Amino acid sequence: MKKVFYTDEEQAILAELSSYPAAQQMQILEDSVVAAENESDRSALKVLLLKVKAPQAK
């Protein structure tokens, strides 16, 4: 298994995501996975950043 090292910015994104309610976390992650299916891990995290910074208004 490959070790992944996150930048400070990425760690902040993950910390912010963990402060969301569980159902919203799952929705953001599911949306990010769908949006980044053909992207690298790094790109997927950038998609996640966009979702965390601008969550959908539902």
UniProtKB/TrEMBL annotation:
The protein's name: Uncharacterized protein
Source organism per UniProt: Caproicibacterium amylolyticum
Lineage start: Bacteria, Bacillati, Bacillota, Clostridia, Eubacteriales
